[in-house]
Structures
1.
Amino acid sequence: GVHSELITNCEQIAFLGGENPEKNRLNRSFARVLKHLSKTTAMNFNSEILRQYLNKYFVTVIGLFLVSRPVRLGLNGIDKYTPDMIAQYFSSTWKNMEAMSTSIQDLFELTNRIGRLSGLASRVDHLMRGLETRNPVLENEIRNAKQGPFPPTFKHGQDLKFENVSVFRPDGTLLVKDLNFSVQRGTRVLVTGGNGCGKSSLFRVIRKLWPLVSGTITMPAEKEIYFLTQVNFVPVGTLRDLVIYPDSSQTMEKERRTDEEILECLRWAHCSPEVLSEDGRADLEFVQEGKVIRPKLDDTRDWQKDLSPGQKQKIAFARLFYHRPSFVVLDECTNGISPDVEQEIYDRCTQMNLGIFSISHKIELKEFHDWELHYKGDSAGGWEMFKCSETRGKYMGSLSRGH
């Protein structure tokens, strides 16, 4: 359900700053569950009253009928009993049957209670085990850094600046040591390195998904740094909601943003249902039951299923163009986009004067960037920074200090 989707897409949601809309979605889902629970509780209340009534009165009538049968038919010599003996027979037999009925009822109720208690005890046990086995995340490294010359510090500024920043995995593995460079708005940086060297790690620290261990990061407000990850999160809602996420329609109206802006952003991202190509197909369309669907801004669909991977990436770029941040991190987010469209999207980012960090293995992307930040991926946390127009291996000491 909603919780499983949230767990699956938690990192993408955190990168997009979608905590509030997802919290609202959880609250709406909880409200529906609570409403259903209230309804079923009322029904259970009525059924419990009926069950108790039947157990108390209907069973009593049946019991009395069965007990009276030997008396009425004169079975087992009861026709020779005196009235006192018959009354005693009725009383003792009825008490035994009532005790048996109550015991059976309590047995069924005890089974239900044991089941509920078992479920609650299991949840508490899992919680306690999780708390006991929780591993501290870089607490020793952070404690040591606070006592050293480069304590972990975040500062506010217009540019992105890294001063003696060291990045660790949560398990304590050093990825980058003493990172020093500054990026202004409009500068384009290509981040390269081998698989698993931690190319995305620096941006997890910026988004505060991972703790900053040491050094100083100067950065603008979090909303001025936008992240496009490898896995594109597709929120629930209308096509409009997909583009303005994590904003809501109320926020859009408050900021006096228009649908024309959204359609323009979709056109820039080559994902508009209104722009037709030479073969008559729209940038955003799909076939369902033999019919061509070109969604409107107010349409709500199962976007996760209907959109192709390339369309999801284009929607993510339309969302980027809508929010117009100062900096953007592009983490392998153009794999499903054709090269010609990819070039136009990069050109649009440049025209918007965005500071760009591109994480990619594509060598051809160098022509769209000014600098290359290369992670060596060694145990010493080495890194280098080059100007993309110059040959690999030439160190740009005027801009950065590598190790």
2.
Amino acid sequence: MERPENLSKRSAILGKVLKFINAEEWRDYGDYMVFGLAMLDESSHSVLVHDLPSDFLERYRQFLEFDHAFNAYVDQKISTERTTLKARPSDSEFLKRLRALPERLLRLQAQALDLEVPPTAEFTPEEFLRQLKEQLALKDEREARSHSSVPAEHDIDGLDSHYCEEVLDTLELIVSRASALEAVRTESIPNTKVRRCFEEAMRCYLYGFNMACAAMCRALLEAALKEVIDPDGRLRPVKDAKGRGASYFLTLVDNARWSGKLSNELTGSAKQVKEAGDAAVHDAAKFAIEYPAKKVESLLDRTRQILSELYGHSS
């Protein structure tokens, strides 16, 4: 059976609804909610589409698109400053949106933001952006002078808006990745640390954080192997002829195979998980080349199978 192109129908629906919420174009009436207030007769709560000018819907669509682009530009700036090491968002994408607006609508949006709009001279997208950036810089300066550790209300709303968008943008990926995983029985795992690490590794994978997923898989396998193979911590890696000790992780894996708690196939898989986790922590460039998303998916699946086999033999 062919998989549908969009696995998450809810992400598309919620994405449309979110545009109205961010534009304050919605109302909660208790038993139901209305999105798109400009098209609503509030006295009867009926839709006025048949009474609207012929070009109203197009202008309303342009307003929503602008509001979405504006919020994305401002909210990304707020989130970038607080939660990433990236540079501030580029002006180019927002400027492209501004250029798509008719000048009349651009003027209306500028007036709504208290920008200075000349009554007769041309008002350009570049001028709109210049004044907006000055306005945002003044807000930053005022907040810096206040020395307040509490985020301003518009910052909280901006973060809320930005991360709602981010979660919705990721929802399709999450559903797609979750649906690709095989079903493996792992309910026999008693160790809460191992279960917690597995849940974190799974969420890293679902959200597309491949390096973090590989590192977590390595960590949880070592914790599981230690509990099953060396609970008292007595196992010591055998030294080679030059006096170098073998990896404790690999020693655990080999002992799991010798004791019959891990098959030859999954022994090899456990060693591959270690290599991937080491690369994720110590060599990001190597990891990016050697471990594409599909390979990380395979590593996670194998990690689940190893856990199932380890604890299946130990129960």
3.
Amino acid sequence: MMSPDSSQSSSDSQAAWAKLNSGGKKYTPLLICRGANGFGFSLTDDSPVGVCQVEAGSSAEKAGLQENDRIVEVEKEDVINTSTQQLAAIIRHQQKTMEVVVWREVSTQRVQRTGSQQTDRQTPCKTPVKRSGSKLSGLGSARKKYKQQCKERKAKGRRDGVADGATVSEKKALKMVAYLHEIEGEFCDTVERSRCYYVSQLQQSGQLDEDSMATLFQNIDMLISMSRYFASKLEIVVRQADKKMIATAPEIYLPRIEVLKQNYLKYVEGVEKAEGVRLLLAEGLSVPSPEQDDILLLDELIYSPLHHIQKVAAAFSLFLQSVGDKDPSLPHVQRISSELRECCELIESYSQVSQPQFHSPAKSKSGPLDPEVAEIEERLEFPPHVKEFTLCEPNRHKIYWSEVKVIGVKHKLVAYLFSDIILVARQRGWRDSKLSVAMDPVNLCDIIDVDYGAEGSDGVFEIKLHYMSMPDQELCTLTMVCLDLETKLVWKGLLRDRLVRHTPPTEHSLSDQV
């Protein structure tokens, strides 16, 4: 693991340098590099930019290493004599993050070139190596030259995407936007494939069986949940931009902020429309013969939020490029980058939309076993007060999970929402993956009322499930306290839709406190 103390790393580097040079040969450091599951090297002639990433299992030649190079792991001060075969094995089996220095033997044979330049005959590292005492300074002149080149390029006005001469914070922000575009594209492609499955099935057979309907609603719920989260983050970013940047340079930032605001409002409108269409789908697509309007609503549901994600991402791209024109080191740039990173992570987690499995109505309703449910079942442990049961059954799928608190239990629990039941369990620490079942599962068909609590109050994220326990038919209450409002809203939407589908409306009196 990397040492958190930079001074300790410097001391270790000097110790490793002394060990290397004790044998009579002289070595020069090429670059201190950090990497997980592989090394990153920079063997360019005059600057430490353009790092070549070497993935696990790659060859040493791809890293640009030579037969007599040495690798020093700074923390252990270990010197690795790198034949290319040895280094390939090291890279292939590297599973932790480490800090290393690449050393190359300095040739004592030099030739005089034009002017006063001197270069090595054998080593490709053309930067003259300066050493004062035991301090390492082989990259000092390279950094100065690189900074000078950045200033010259900036003076010429050469700015593209990740701009020449851009600051570190600006580069990170722009790269985050590019990553957002990439993840968004993958997400759109996946949703498009699912949409084609749904529409083709509806047009051919005029109905979706129960399994396909469950998958359809699962995907739509994930899309809407992601949209709500993305909209909340956009609101934060717009608010930050409005306050921080208009006063700084209104002639530059004001047009960008207006574009950002307009697209944000359109995006929120699309999310609200998607939620309305979702309710119509619950009522319309479950009937045997859906009309063409239902298919159009499905298209609108999928494309309305994603269309505005594209617009917002484009507005972000223009907005962040303009940030660097005046003061690219302002703290809000880092905050915007952080907000985008969270959005990207969430979109990435939702991008793996499960593909629906269509079945002919004439076939058996017994569907395949879900491997994800089977994996959860392997982790279950049943205490004496809980009767053992089989979790992995045909047509049962995991819909959602989150950490919750339960009234009367001091430990933090995990609540799983499956297609037909709710399971509450305790995870015994992060290292132990076992799940201790806290209570008998709650069947969705046994729930007779849900109280979502009053929203808007500080710290009130309760969801009370009133259900008839089996087999004694006693009226029981499960009170889950979500850790944040966003989690509560997701649970609220998922429970409301599934309870409507599992039991006729006459048997439900769902509390609708907003």
